[in-house]
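Colleagues,

For the teaching module next term, I've prepared a clean inverse folding example: a structure given as tokens, and then the sequence designed for it. I'd like students to try predicting residues themselves before seeing the answer, so please don't circulate the second half yet.
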């Protein structure tokens, strides 16, 4: 899909699930040159971008990434405010990336999802 339609679709998306679905389709090569021009995720009045847009070579292989997206919070000046994990199951939950046990507990209790042996 053409970049412009993807970017405009993102601005219209409301739910976190829809937003995550849309950014999944945007490759690093489609992004504007400047961070301030990147399409942003709006989650609970805060602004985030997918972490993979910043750390091109770093990949999270943890099982929690199967059920959510690693994002970086930005302040209004586009300064990075740390990494977070956003649940992709339309429940609007955001956890600090370091809080993997909270994230696991959330997936276990709310979505009945568990780490498999080979994850
Ligand atoms: Zn959830």
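(Answer key — instructors only)
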């Amino acid at each position: 899909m053409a970049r412009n339609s993807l970017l405009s679709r993102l601005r219209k998306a409301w739910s976190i699930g829809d937003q995550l679905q849309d950014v999944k389709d945007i490759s690093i090569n489609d992004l504007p040159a400047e961070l301030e021009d990147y399409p942003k995720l709006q989650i609970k009045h805060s602004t985030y971008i997918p972490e993979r847009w910043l750390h091109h070579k770093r990949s999270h292989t943890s099982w929690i990434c199967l059920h959510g997206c690693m994002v970086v919070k930005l302040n209004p000046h586009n300064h990075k405010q740390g990494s977070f994990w956003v649940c992709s199951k339309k429940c609007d939950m955001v956890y600090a990336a370091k809080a993997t046990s909270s994230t696991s507990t959330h997936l276990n209790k709310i979505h009945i999802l568990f780490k498999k042996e080979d994850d």
